[in-house]
Amino acid sequence: MFELVYSAILCGMLLGGETEVSHAYAVGYDLYRIRTDCETADEVFEVGLDKRSSLDSVQQALFAAELTGKRPVVVLVDTDGREGRFELRIRRAAARAGVEYRVYSKSFLIRWRMTSYLRDRVLLADAGNA
Questions:
Q1: pLDDT digits (tens, 9 = 90+) for 70-104
Q2: 129 vs 88, 114, 116, 117, CA distance in Å?
Q3: Rounded to whole angstroms, how far apart are CA atoms 7 and 97?
Q4: For the whole model, what pTM was predicted?
Q5: 47 and which of 12, 37, 43, 121 could share a cystine (Cβ 3.0–4.6 Å)?
Q6: How many CA atoms lie within 13 A of 4 on its CB side?
Q7: What are phi and psi for residue 123, nearest 5 degrees?
């Protein structure tokens, strides 16, 4: 699976947020845009896999927080069950910058998605009894 799939499961099913929210910013006369991986009412999440490509996660979370006024959070999806060199670097950089750091295993996210229908049935049953 790809990062976007894990991000969608995490954001939509666990955090109750919105994925791929676009934000504009200006540099001189030029207008640019970023997309956040996930946003809730008070937090902005940068989601990445435990790979080299996620080394800029702290910077991305901080910049998105600057644009939105929300609290930055870095989330890594653990694909191999251990903390490797990239996770260590990201975790320490996040701690140094005061950015919350979370890790979810890919298997947890997949199981959460696969069993969502069970939670939905319970919610529907509870709503019928209310």
A1: 999 999 999 999 999 999 999 999 999 999 999 99
A2: 48, 25, 20, 19
A3: 23
A4: 0.85
A5: 37
A6: 2
A7: -60, -40
